[in-house]
Amino acid sequence: MDIGGHRFFSKSDRVMNWWKDILPIQGAPSRDDILLGRDVPLSNLPAIATCLQTKRFVARRHAFRVYVLKSFHPRRTAFWWALFALGLAFRVYAVLVLRNPMDALFSDPWRHWENAKLFLTPTAMGASNPYLYQLYLFLVQKATHENKLAFGLATGGLSIAYAVVWLAFALSVFRTRLNALRFATILCWLPSHVSIFGFCMNETLLLPLLGLALWLTKRSLVQRTPGSFVAMTTAWTLALLTRSVVGPIGLGCVLVSWLRLRRRRWLALGVACAISFVWLAAASIRAHKILNRYTPFGDNSIATVYFVSAAHDYSVDIKGYGKYFFSSPSLYVSPFKPFAEFESIRIGAVSFSLDPALKGKDVQQTLIEQFEGNWKKLPRLFYENFIFLAFGHSWPTAGATNDRGDAICLAQRWMWAPLTLLSLVGSILYISRRGAAFVPIVTIGFVFTFYVLAQVAFLEGRYRMPMEPMMLLAPIWLWDVRRRA
Fold first, then answer.
1. Contact call for residues 457 and 447 (beta carbons, < 8 A)
2. Which residues of the chain have pLDDT under 50?
3. How far is CA 157 from the centre of its chain?
């Protein structure tokens, strides 16, 4: 659709001068220029005042809009909107065509699938794993009747939701919509964050929940209303029930948001606690039926024993439920591949038993024994954890198959260590020079949580994935505010 006058422009002075000889530029402001108070370039022809009196060129600011996603956008923004929309379509294509999660049921994806199928009658492994992803997968299995196409469409919708909620969060914190859109578009096309939705892994639920929780946190800090606080607290509770490692970040966000409430502070806290209590109670009761312990966030004691043991593999015999074996994928692909090998000090296997009737006392005793026998190795184990988290491959998106996408995801891991360092240093400098701001504080919180507080368990490159969107967002945000300072 062509609306308004036709545009005449050329980078050639010869062409522009030729046009000016035929149609000189207006010699005085036109009526709309006067009404709107616009400053426009005028010619030195005093006899003719406006283009209404004779044929003249009218000087106007160029406004070009492109229709994308049912709205008009400037040309630069339209390019990124189109690329973002294309990325959303590719995410669905990746799940339906490139790898449907039901075609990749092995190891951890198979464990999650089976835990979901037995959600109402869980095994010991199901009771010790995080609650919410099992519930989500159970509901999707029932809704789709385990139909491959229907399950792929549901997962494709979740993949789209991930990109959309992080775009919403970016729009709430960036000063310019264009840079928020640039971040969301890059995240939307990120290979490992597309590939992960081809597997039944709890990151596929945690990533959109984190974006939702951060967006609702920012919204709560701005609106400072009881309703926004309750919504934010509920989102963090759901994220916590998906992966407990995000707990410290969520707790900090909830505390600050609560202190900033303008009215009905205690009522909002009571409602939020009641909703969270219902979720936590449901998860706790389910775990207690099997493990004889209230562990709403899953039982991490087995992972802690594995970390402290300095063993390459572990096996646990859960009385009444059989044996489970595990070996970390981090130990099979060098974090410095293809440039160098990395030798871990982990050797052999550790075996222990778990009797639910003892309410965790046997696991505590095993942990004490392993700590007493390996405490001198802890500095090295912490160092290995740091290396695996910073440079390790993100299994199963990398290291699980031999296709081209696997190779791309394996190479992509090199970007996260420098991005994390840049985000951390930039955030600290921003706070020291300009004061506290939401993005720098959250960025520091993510780095501290994953690189310090999470060191009590064996870490892998995949465990880095929940913090990766913030490590991508922070440098773009810092560049955005620096340009607008």
1. no
2. 1-3, 47-53
3. 16
Q: Which two tokens stand for residue 456?
A: 């009590």
The answer to whether 337 and 374 have CB atoms below 8 angstroms apart is no
CA distance 83 to 123: 44
- Residue 482's alpha-carbon distances to 171, 184, 433, in angstroms, are 17, 19, 12
Amino acid identity of 405?
G
According to DSSP, the β-strands at 313-318 and 322-327 are antiparallel
Dihedral class, residue 69 (left if φ above 0, else alpha if ψ from -120 to 50, else beta) = left
Rounded Cα distance between 467 and 246, Å, is 9
Query: Judging by DSSP bridges, how do beta strands 313-318 and 349-354 pair with one another?
Result: parallel
> Is residue 433 exposed (0-12), middle (13-18) or buried (19+ Cβ within 10 Å)?
exposed
Residue-range domain boundaries for the chain = 1-63, 67-296+414-484, 301-376
Res 61: pLDDT:
59
Please report the pLDDT score of residue 1 as a whole number: 40
Helix 438-451 with 247-259: angle, nearest 10 deg:
150
DSSP state, 375?
Answer: G
Q: What is the pLDDT of residue 23?
A: 73
- Paired tokens of 312: 């390459």
Note whether 64 and 3 are within 8 A (CB): no
Give 69's DSSP letter: T
Tokens 């303008």 identify what position? 262
Smallest CA-to-CA distance from 149 within 199, 110, 95, 91 is with 95
Look-up of token digits 């929780």: 213
Judge contact between 112 and 202, C-beta under 8 A.
Answer: yes
Angstrom distance (rounded) from CA 199 to CA 462: 13
| Rounded CA separation 431/443 (Å) | 11
Structure tokens at 389: 């988290």
Cβ(413)–Cβ(387) below 8 Å: no
Give me the residue label for tokens 């064996």.
458
Per-residue pLDDT, 305? 93
Distance CA 129, CA 359 (A): 17
Q: Give the C-alpha distances (Å, rounded to integers) separating 339 from 336, 388, 411, 461.
A: 6, 15, 12, 17
- CA distance linking residue 283 with residue 266, whole number of Å: 25
Q: What is the DSSP string of 245-303?
A: GGHHHHHHHHHHHHHT--S-HHHHHHHHHHHHHHHHHHHHHHHHHHHSS--TT---HHH
- Please identify which residue in the block is written with the tokens 């022809």: 45
